[in-house]
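So, does this match?
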Amino acid sequence: MPNRIFDQRNADLLNSLQASGQYKRLETVSGPLGPTATLAGIGQVVVLCSNNYLGLANHPEVVAAGIEGLRRYGAGTASVRFICGTSQAHRQLEETLAGFCGTEAALTYASCWNANEAILPAAAGADDVIISDELNHASIIDSCRLANAINKTQRAVYRHGDMVELETRLKEHAGRQVRFVVTDGVFSMEGAVAKLPQIVELCRRHDAVLVMDDSHGTGVLGAGGRGTAEHFGMVGQVDIYTGTLGKALGGAAGGYVAAARHTIELLIQRSRPSLFSNALPATVACSANAAIGILQREPQRVARLHANGKTIRQGLRRLGFECQDSPSAIIPIHIGDATAAIAKSKRLLELGVWVVAFGFPVVPQGKARLRIQLSAALEEEHLQKALDAFARL
Protein backbone atom coordinates (compact mmCIF):
# COMPACT_ATOMS: atom_id res chain seq x y z
CA MET A 1 0.00 0.00 0.00
CA PRO A 2 1.30 3.50 -0.79
CA ASN A 3 2.22 5.80 2.07
CA ARG A 4 -0.72 8.20 2.33
CA ILE A 5 1.27 11.02 3.91
CA PHE A 6 3.85 10.84 1.13
CA ASP A 7 1.21 10.79 -1.58
CA GLN A 8 -0.76 13.66 -0.04
CA ARG A 9 2.34 15.79 0.42
CA ASN A 10 3.27 15.35 -3.24
CA ALA A 11 -0.28 16.08 -4.38
CA ASP A 12 -0.42 19.26 -2.27
CA LEU A 13 2.85 20.53 -3.75
CA LEU A 14 1.83 19.80 -7.35
CA ASN A 15 -1.59 21.40 -6.83
CA SER A 16 0.09 24.47 -5.35
CA LEU A 17 2.43 24.79 -8.35
CA GLN A 18 -0.47 24.50 -10.77
CA ALA A 19 -2.62 27.00 -8.86
CA SER A 20 0.20 29.57 -8.75
CA GLY A 21 1.10 29.17 -12.44
CA GLN A 22 4.55 27.76 -11.64
CA TYR A 23 4.00 24.21 -12.91
CA LYS A 24 6.69 23.14 -15.39
CA ARG A 25 5.38 21.57 -18.57
CA LEU A 26 7.49 19.21 -20.65
CA GLU A 27 6.99 19.97 -24.34
CA THR A 28 7.00 17.03 -26.75
CA VAL A 29 9.38 17.57 -29.67
CA SER A 30 8.82 15.82 -33.00
CA GLY A 31 12.10 15.38 -34.86
CA PRO A 32 15.55 16.86 -34.30
CA LEU A 33 16.38 20.20 -32.69
CA GLY A 34 17.76 22.86 -34.97
CA PRO A 35 17.06 26.58 -35.36
CA THR A 36 13.42 25.50 -35.30
CA ALA A 37 11.54 22.55 -33.82
CA THR A 38 8.08 21.08 -34.08
CA LEU A 39 6.21 20.84 -30.77
CA ALA A 40 3.18 18.63 -30.27
CA GLY A 41 -0.03 20.68 -30.24
CA ILE A 42 1.82 23.90 -31.09
CA GLY A 43 3.64 23.45 -34.39
CA GLN A 44 6.93 24.87 -35.58
CA VAL A 45 8.72 27.34 -33.32
CA VAL A 46 12.03 29.20 -33.33
CA VAL A 47 14.30 27.59 -30.72
CA LEU A 48 15.87 30.06 -28.29
CA CYS A 49 16.21 27.64 -25.37
CA SER A 50 18.69 25.05 -26.61
CA ASN A 51 22.34 24.41 -25.75
CA ASN A 52 22.91 23.56 -29.43
CA TYR A 53 25.28 26.51 -29.60
CA LEU A 54 27.08 25.58 -32.82
CA GLY A 55 24.14 23.96 -34.60
CA LEU A 56 25.85 20.54 -34.57
CA ALA A 57 23.13 18.47 -32.87
CA ASN A 58 21.72 17.37 -36.24
CA HIS A 59 24.79 17.91 -38.42
CA PRO A 60 25.02 15.11 -41.03
CA GLU A 61 28.61 14.25 -40.11
CA VAL A 62 27.81 14.11 -36.41
CA VAL A 63 24.77 11.89 -37.02
CA ALA A 64 26.72 9.63 -39.41
CA ALA A 65 29.56 9.22 -36.90
CA GLY A 66 27.07 8.16 -34.24
CA ILE A 67 25.45 5.63 -36.57
CA GLU A 68 28.83 4.19 -37.51
CA GLY A 69 29.76 4.01 -33.81
CA LEU A 70 26.56 2.12 -33.09
CA ARG A 71 27.30 -0.37 -35.84
CA ARG A 72 30.93 -0.84 -34.82
CA TYR A 73 30.66 -0.91 -31.03
CA GLY A 74 27.02 -1.79 -30.31
CA ALA A 75 24.46 -0.08 -28.13
CA GLY A 76 26.47 -0.02 -24.92
CA THR A 77 29.35 -1.38 -22.86
CA ALA A 78 27.03 -3.36 -20.55
CA SER A 79 29.22 -2.56 -17.55
CA VAL A 80 31.76 -0.14 -16.13
CA ARG A 81 35.11 0.38 -17.84
CA PHE A 82 37.39 -1.37 -15.37
CA ILE A 83 35.24 -4.50 -15.66
CA CYS A 84 34.45 -4.66 -19.37
CA GLY A 85 37.30 -2.59 -20.72
CA THR A 86 37.55 0.68 -22.60
CA SER A 87 36.51 0.91 -26.22
CA GLN A 88 38.65 2.49 -28.88
CA ALA A 89 35.94 5.15 -29.31
CA HIS A 90 36.53 6.38 -25.75
CA ARG A 91 40.30 6.41 -26.17
CA GLN A 92 40.05 8.44 -29.36
CA LEU A 93 37.63 10.95 -27.87
CA GLU A 94 39.70 11.38 -24.71
CA GLU A 95 42.85 12.03 -26.73
CA THR A 96 40.92 14.62 -28.75
CA LEU A 97 39.55 16.29 -25.61
CA ALA A 98 42.98 16.48 -23.96
CA GLY A 99 44.42 18.18 -27.03
CA PHE A 100 41.41 20.49 -27.27
CA CYS A 101 41.73 21.56 -23.61
CA GLY A 102 45.53 21.72 -23.60
CA THR A 103 45.97 19.03 -20.92
CA GLU A 104 47.87 15.75 -20.70
CA ALA A 105 44.83 13.50 -20.47
CA ALA A 106 41.03 13.34 -20.20
CA LEU A 107 38.37 10.95 -18.95
CA THR A 108 34.76 10.80 -20.15
CA TYR A 109 31.61 10.30 -18.09
CA ALA A 110 27.92 9.78 -18.84
CA SER A 111 27.28 13.48 -18.13
CA CYS A 112 29.09 16.57 -16.90
CA TRP A 113 27.05 16.23 -13.72
CA ASN A 114 28.85 12.90 -13.23
CA ALA A 115 32.18 14.51 -14.10
CA ASN A 116 31.69 17.24 -11.49
CA GLU A 117 30.41 14.68 -9.02
CA ALA A 118 33.56 12.63 -9.65
CA ILE A 119 36.37 15.10 -9.22
CA LEU A 120 36.01 16.67 -5.76
CA PRO A 121 35.04 13.59 -3.68
CA ALA A 122 37.91 11.68 -5.33
CA ALA A 123 40.54 14.44 -5.12
CA ALA A 124 39.78 16.35 -1.90
CA GLY A 125 40.57 15.05 1.58
CA ALA A 126 39.76 15.84 5.20
CA ASP A 127 42.61 18.34 5.53
CA ASP A 128 41.59 20.26 2.39
CA VAL A 129 39.08 23.01 1.59
CA ILE A 130 36.92 23.67 -1.47
CA ILE A 131 36.26 27.37 -2.18
CA SER A 132 33.32 27.82 -4.55
CA ASP A 133 31.68 30.77 -6.34
CA GLU A 134 28.18 31.25 -4.94
CA LEU A 135 26.56 31.01 -8.40
CA ASN A 136 28.25 27.78 -9.45
CA HIS A 137 26.13 25.13 -11.15
CA ALA A 138 24.06 22.77 -8.98
CA SER A 139 26.31 19.85 -9.93
CA ILE A 140 29.33 21.66 -8.48
CA ILE A 141 27.40 22.47 -5.30
CA ASP A 142 26.40 18.82 -4.94
CA SER A 143 30.00 17.73 -5.57
CA CYS A 144 31.17 20.01 -2.75
CA ARG A 145 28.52 18.54 -0.47
CA LEU A 146 29.55 15.00 -1.39
CA ALA A 147 33.20 15.72 -0.68
CA ASN A 148 32.20 17.04 2.72
CA ALA A 149 29.89 14.09 3.45
CA ILE A 150 32.34 11.41 2.27
CA ASN A 151 35.74 12.87 3.18
CA LYS A 152 34.90 15.66 5.67
CA THR A 153 36.41 18.21 3.26
CA GLN A 154 35.76 21.76 4.43
CA ARG A 155 33.66 24.04 2.21
CA ALA A 156 33.70 27.81 1.75
CA VAL A 157 31.82 30.14 -0.60
CA TYR A 158 32.75 33.52 -2.04
CA ARG A 159 30.41 36.13 -3.51
CA HIS A 160 29.94 35.77 -7.25
CA GLY A 161 32.97 37.14 -9.09
CA ASP A 162 34.30 38.87 -5.96
CA MET A 163 38.07 38.49 -6.17
CA VAL A 164 38.68 40.30 -2.89
CA GLU A 165 36.48 37.82 -1.05
CA LEU A 166 38.07 34.89 -2.91
CA GLU A 167 41.50 35.97 -1.67
CA THR A 168 40.09 36.41 1.82
CA ARG A 169 38.84 32.81 1.75
CA LEU A 170 42.23 31.60 0.47
CA LYS A 171 43.99 33.38 3.34
CA GLU A 172 41.47 32.13 5.91
CA HIS A 173 42.27 28.55 4.92
CA ALA A 174 46.03 28.95 4.48
CA GLY A 175 46.63 26.08 6.91
CA ARG A 176 44.83 23.52 4.75
CA GLN A 177 46.89 20.97 2.85
CA VAL A 178 45.19 21.66 -0.47
CA ARG A 179 42.87 24.54 -1.36
CA PHE A 180 40.62 23.93 -4.36
CA VAL A 181 39.03 26.93 -6.09
CA VAL A 182 36.00 25.90 -8.16
CA THR A 183 34.21 28.08 -10.71
CA ASP A 184 32.04 27.92 -13.77
CA GLY A 185 33.67 29.34 -16.89
CA VAL A 186 30.31 30.75 -18.05
CA PHE A 187 27.57 30.92 -15.42
CA SER A 188 24.51 29.21 -16.85
CA MET A 189 21.79 31.42 -15.37
CA GLU A 190 23.57 34.76 -15.78
CA GLY A 191 25.65 34.38 -18.95
CA ALA A 192 28.50 36.01 -17.01
CA VAL A 193 32.08 34.92 -17.68
CA ALA A 194 34.45 34.04 -14.84
CA LYS A 195 37.29 36.46 -14.15
CA LEU A 196 39.78 33.81 -15.15
CA PRO A 197 42.98 35.91 -15.26
CA GLN A 198 42.44 37.14 -11.70
CA ILE A 199 41.39 33.67 -10.47
CA VAL A 200 44.46 32.02 -11.99
CA GLU A 201 46.74 34.69 -10.50
CA LEU A 202 45.23 34.19 -7.03
CA CYS A 203 45.50 30.40 -7.30
CA ARG A 204 49.15 30.61 -8.32
CA ARG A 205 49.99 33.12 -5.59
CA HIS A 206 48.30 31.01 -2.91
CA ASP A 207 49.28 27.59 -4.32
CA ALA A 208 45.64 26.57 -4.88
CA VAL A 209 44.26 24.06 -7.40
CA LEU A 210 41.83 25.55 -9.93
CA VAL A 211 38.83 23.52 -11.13
CA MET A 212 36.69 25.07 -13.89
CA ASP A 213 33.46 23.73 -15.39
CA ASP A 214 33.42 25.17 -18.92
CA SER A 215 30.20 23.53 -20.13
CA HIS A 216 28.72 26.81 -21.41
CA GLY A 217 32.06 28.22 -22.59
CA THR A 218 33.21 25.32 -24.76
CA GLY A 219 32.32 25.95 -28.39
CA VAL A 220 31.22 29.49 -27.51
CA LEU A 221 34.21 31.49 -26.29
CA GLY A 222 37.56 31.98 -27.98
CA ALA A 223 38.20 32.32 -31.69
CA GLY A 224 38.48 28.56 -32.02
CA GLY A 225 35.69 27.74 -29.57
CA ARG A 226 38.08 26.24 -27.02
CA GLY A 227 36.28 28.06 -24.25
CA THR A 228 36.90 30.49 -21.44
CA ALA A 229 40.63 29.83 -21.27
CA GLU A 230 41.09 30.59 -24.98
CA HIS A 231 38.92 33.70 -24.61
CA PHE A 232 41.53 35.06 -22.16
CA GLY A 233 44.57 33.58 -23.92
CA MET A 234 45.10 31.12 -21.06
CA VAL A 235 44.77 27.66 -22.59
CA GLY A 236 46.69 25.19 -20.43
CA GLN A 237 46.62 27.38 -17.31
CA VAL A 238 43.60 25.73 -15.66
CA ASP A 239 44.54 22.74 -13.50
CA ILE A 240 41.35 20.72 -13.94
CA TYR A 241 38.66 21.25 -16.56
CA THR A 242 35.22 19.69 -16.55
CA GLY A 243 32.88 20.03 -19.48
CA THR A 244 30.00 18.56 -21.40
CA LEU A 245 29.49 16.91 -24.76
CA GLY A 246 25.76 17.64 -24.48
CA LYS A 247 25.80 21.28 -25.52
CA ALA A 248 28.02 22.74 -28.27
CA LEU A 249 29.84 19.45 -28.95
CA GLY A 250 27.02 17.57 -30.63
CA GLY A 251 24.38 17.97 -27.97
CA ALA A 252 23.75 14.29 -27.21
CA ALA A 253 25.06 13.55 -23.71
CA GLY A 254 28.26 12.97 -21.84
CA GLY A 255 30.86 14.89 -19.90
CA TYR A 256 34.57 14.84 -19.22
CA VAL A 257 37.42 15.82 -16.95
CA ALA A 258 40.65 17.07 -18.58
CA ALA A 259 43.74 17.46 -16.43
CA ALA A 260 47.26 16.23 -15.72
CA ARG A 261 47.75 12.52 -16.31
CA HIS A 262 48.13 11.68 -12.62
CA THR A 263 44.80 13.42 -11.86
CA ILE A 264 43.04 11.38 -14.54
CA GLU A 265 44.66 8.19 -13.21
CA LEU A 266 43.36 9.08 -9.74
CA LEU A 267 39.83 9.38 -11.16
CA ILE A 268 40.14 6.01 -12.92
CA GLN A 269 41.10 4.46 -9.59
CA ARG A 270 38.80 6.34 -7.22
CA SER A 271 35.94 8.29 -8.82
CA ARG A 272 32.64 6.66 -7.99
CA PRO A 273 30.76 7.66 -11.19
CA SER A 274 33.46 5.87 -13.20
CA LEU A 275 33.73 2.83 -10.93
CA PHE A 276 29.99 2.27 -10.50
CA SER A 277 28.33 3.57 -13.67
CA ASN A 278 28.45 2.39 -17.27
CA ALA A 279 30.71 4.18 -19.71
CA LEU A 280 29.48 6.78 -22.15
CA PRO A 281 27.76 4.99 -25.09
CA ALA A 282 30.24 4.62 -27.94
CA THR A 283 27.79 6.18 -30.39
CA VAL A 284 27.88 9.41 -28.36
CA ALA A 285 31.68 9.28 -28.13
CA CYS A 286 31.91 8.98 -31.91
CA SER A 287 29.43 11.83 -32.48
CA ALA A 288 31.24 14.14 -30.07
CA ASN A 289 34.61 13.36 -31.65
CA ALA A 290 33.15 14.30 -35.04
CA ALA A 291 31.68 17.51 -33.61
CA ILE A 292 35.06 18.63 -32.28
CA GLY A 293 36.55 17.96 -35.70
CA ILE A 294 33.92 20.16 -37.35
CA LEU A 295 34.53 22.95 -34.82
CA GLN A 296 38.26 22.87 -35.48
CA ARG A 297 37.67 22.86 -39.24
CA GLU A 298 34.95 25.52 -39.19
CA PRO A 299 35.74 28.14 -36.51
CA GLN A 300 33.48 30.52 -38.43
CA ARG A 301 30.58 28.84 -36.59
CA VAL A 302 31.79 30.56 -33.41
CA ALA A 303 31.94 33.92 -35.20
CA ARG A 304 28.39 33.42 -36.49
CA LEU A 305 27.19 32.59 -32.98
CA HIS A 306 28.70 35.84 -31.69
CA ALA A 307 27.13 37.81 -34.55
CA ASN A 308 23.72 36.34 -33.68
CA GLY A 309 24.25 37.33 -30.07
CA LYS A 310 25.03 40.90 -31.08
CA THR A 311 21.89 41.09 -33.25
CA ILE A 312 19.59 39.80 -30.51
CA ARG A 313 21.10 41.93 -27.74
CA GLN A 314 20.90 45.12 -29.81
CA GLY A 315 17.33 44.33 -30.87
CA LEU A 316 16.18 43.62 -27.32
CA ARG A 317 17.75 46.84 -26.05
CA ARG A 318 15.90 48.83 -28.72
CA LEU A 319 12.69 47.25 -27.39
CA GLY A 320 13.52 48.35 -23.84
CA PHE A 321 14.81 45.08 -22.39
CA GLU A 322 17.94 45.12 -20.25
CA CYS A 323 20.71 42.83 -21.58
CA GLN A 324 24.12 42.48 -19.98
CA ASP A 325 27.21 42.74 -22.13
CA SER A 326 28.69 39.26 -22.43
CA PRO A 327 30.45 37.19 -25.08
CA SER A 328 28.43 34.16 -23.97
CA ALA A 329 25.41 32.70 -25.77
CA ILE A 330 23.14 33.20 -22.74
CA ILE A 331 20.90 36.26 -22.32
CA PRO A 332 18.80 36.40 -19.13
CA ILE A 333 15.73 38.67 -19.09
CA HIS A 334 15.06 39.26 -15.39
CA ILE A 335 11.38 39.24 -14.41
CA GLY A 336 11.41 38.58 -10.65
CA ASP A 337 8.09 36.85 -10.10
CA ALA A 338 8.06 33.20 -11.25
CA THR A 339 4.38 33.21 -12.22
CA ALA A 340 4.89 36.28 -14.42
CA ALA A 341 7.99 34.77 -16.03
CA ILE A 342 6.16 31.53 -16.86
CA ALA A 343 3.22 33.49 -18.30
CA LYS A 344 5.59 35.45 -20.55
CA SER A 345 7.27 32.24 -21.68
CA LYS A 346 3.86 30.78 -22.56
CA ARG A 347 2.94 33.90 -24.53
CA LEU A 348 6.20 33.77 -26.51
CA LEU A 349 5.49 30.14 -27.37
CA GLU A 350 2.05 31.17 -28.66
CA LEU A 351 3.91 33.66 -30.87
CA GLY A 352 6.13 30.90 -32.23
CA VAL A 353 9.28 31.48 -30.17
CA TRP A 354 10.48 28.96 -27.58
CA VAL A 355 12.08 30.71 -24.60
CA VAL A 356 11.94 28.98 -21.21
CA ALA A 357 11.20 30.66 -17.87
CA PHE A 358 13.30 29.78 -14.84
CA GLY A 359 12.01 30.07 -11.29
CA PHE A 360 12.69 28.43 -7.95
CA PRO A 361 14.44 26.06 -7.28
CA VAL A 362 16.52 26.58 -10.45
CA VAL A 363 17.09 30.20 -9.37
CA PRO A 364 16.42 31.80 -5.95
CA GLN A 365 12.96 32.99 -4.98
CA GLY A 366 12.22 36.38 -6.51
CA LYS A 367 14.91 35.98 -9.20
CA ALA A 368 12.81 34.39 -11.95
CA ARG A 369 13.80 35.10 -15.52
CA LEU A 370 13.45 34.24 -19.15
CA ARG A 371 16.67 32.75 -20.50
CA ILE A 372 17.53 33.15 -24.18
CA GLN A 373 20.11 30.73 -25.56
CA LEU A 374 21.53 31.38 -28.99
CA SER A 375 22.79 29.14 -31.77
CA ALA A 376 24.99 29.59 -34.80
CA ALA A 377 22.25 27.79 -36.74
CA LEU A 378 19.81 30.69 -36.36
CA GLU A 379 19.31 32.62 -39.60
CA GLU A 380 18.21 36.26 -40.00
CA GLU A 381 14.57 35.24 -40.42
CA HIS A 382 14.64 33.36 -37.10
CA LEU A 383 16.24 36.28 -35.27
CA GLN A 384 13.69 38.71 -36.69
CA LYS A 385 10.77 36.48 -35.74
CA ALA A 386 12.14 36.31 -32.20
CA LEU A 387 12.48 40.09 -31.93
CA ASP A 388 8.99 40.56 -33.35
CA ALA A 389 7.63 38.24 -30.66
CA PHE A 390 9.44 40.16 -27.90
CA ALA A 391 8.03 43.40 -29.34
CA ARG A 392 4.51 42.00 -29.00
CA LEU A 393 5.31 40.65 -25.53
